[in-house]
Structures are given as structure tokens and as C-alpha cells.
């Protein structure tokens, strides 16, 4: 299985901060990566596919980049609704696998 | 608007079979390019993909669960189901059903995304 390692596991940030989350795959995944946002008691919501392509309706303050094994999710200016847990997921090879999540908390 | 809704028991005894159903509205389960998935979230932990069934009835299971897992389709009811046998406390989790769309992006070509999810069904395995 492809292991997805996210860092940090949690971070504290303030409104307006720029936040970066990293996801590293145990082997190359050729941009076949989705970023999800999950709030407590809710299902995950997709933010970006193909590592950097915004899903319809997702604010442009979310962006993604990376290649090979290393990918990042950036929130350019943190908003109140962005405090949540973020997961990466690869769809290069079965079984599809997720990172362990990064929780963005209020500083 | 596509909606998915899980249904099933919230408590299952060890060694018994966990059965859940996902009812789909706003989309036909026969739609080409859609894959109907089960994903679970272990308490305080991350997400684990369990498997899918395609619109044509083809299945793919996570090898870690393959010997215990069956996913089936009922097109007449527009729903799909999960059956997990010989459960233990380690199977206690929130179980989500989700649609995975296989679509096309101008820049990167084919991609897949879990775009619609159910609300989740907490299943506790306990005697």
C-alpha cells in the first residue's frame, strides 16, 4: 500500500495567517492526489483534485502544489470556517489511502 | 443534488456480521463513471477506504478486509450495501458511503474524487 504521511499532525493559527500542510507519499503518485476538509461530526469535503485543481465552489484561498512524492496544501489567509481537519488521499494505486490528517486549531 | 444516506444498526456483537445500506438520491447508481464506495473512520483516527462497486457491478476491495467484505448493488432501489463478517472491536468506526467520480480535467486528464458522502453511521462492536 502507498503510505501517506501528513505533517504537522496539528497546528495553531490565527485568522489571516498563511497555513501550509504537507503530504508525503511512500512512492510517486503523479499528481493523483485529493485534499479533503472535515469538520467535527461531518463527512469530508473535497477541496482540490489532481493535487492543484480546485473543486467547484471552493474558495481560491485554497491552493495545492507538488510533484512526485511531496505535496502541499496552502490556505493563503485563514478564515473562521477553515478551522478543521485536512486529509490527503492518493488515487494512483489500489487500495486508495489517506493521510492521518492535520488539525488546524485556533491560536 | 446528489445525496447519500447510510442506514443500519449502531451496535453489532463480536463475531457477527455488520450490514449497512446506502441509499442514493439525485443520481442513478447505473451512471457510468461513478463508483460507489464504503469508507470508515476509526475512533480518533484517520480514514480507511474499504472498497467499491461500480455501476456495472464490478467490485474492488481493500486487501486488508477482502476476506470479510462484500459490497453489492440493488439498482431497483438505487442503493448499495456493505457486509462485513466476523467483526471485532477493531471494526468499531463511523462508516461512510461515498460516490467516487471518475472525471476528466483539461490539464491533468483523468482524475477521481470522493465528491458526495453520506453523513456517516457509527457502528460499535460490543457484546
Structure notes:
The complex is a heterodimer of chains A (107) and B (127). Chain A has strands at residues 4-7, 10-13, 19-25, 33-38, 45-49, 53-54, 62-67, 70-75, 85-90, 97-98, 102-106. Chain A has 107 residues and is mainly beta. In chain A, β9 and β10 (97-98) form a beta hairpin. Chain A is globular. In chain B, a hairpin with a 4-residue loop joins β7 (69-74) and β8 (79-84). In chain B, strands 2, 4, 5, 6, 9, 10 and 11 form a 7-stranded mixed sheet that branches. A 4-stranded antiparallel sheet of chain B has the order 1-3-8-7, with no helix packed on it. Chains A and B meet through β5 and β10 of A and β5, β9 and β10 of B.
On the 0-100 scale, what is the average pLDDT of chain B? Answer: 95
Overall pLDDT level of chain A? 97
The helical percent of chain B reads under 10%
In what range is the share of β-strand residues of chain A? over 45%
Radius of gyration of chain B: 15 Å
Please give the count of helices of chain B: 0
Number of strands of chain A: 11
Major sheet of chain B: size, sense and barrel closure?
A: 7 strands, mixed
Low-confidence stretches of chain B: none
What is the multimeric organization of the chains shown?
heterodimer
Query: What is Rg of chain A?
Result: 13 Å
The span between the termini of chain B is 39 Å
Largest sheet of chain A: 7 strands, mixed
Q: Which two chains share the most extensive interface?
A: A-B, 24 and 23 residues
The shape of chain B is globular
Tell me, what's the shape of chain A? globular
> How many individual β-strands of chain B?
11
N-to-C CA distance of chain A: 35 Å
Poorly predicted runs of chain A are none
The string of secondary-structure elements of chain B, in order, is: EEEEEEEEEEE
Structural class of the secondary structure composition of chain B?
A: mainly beta
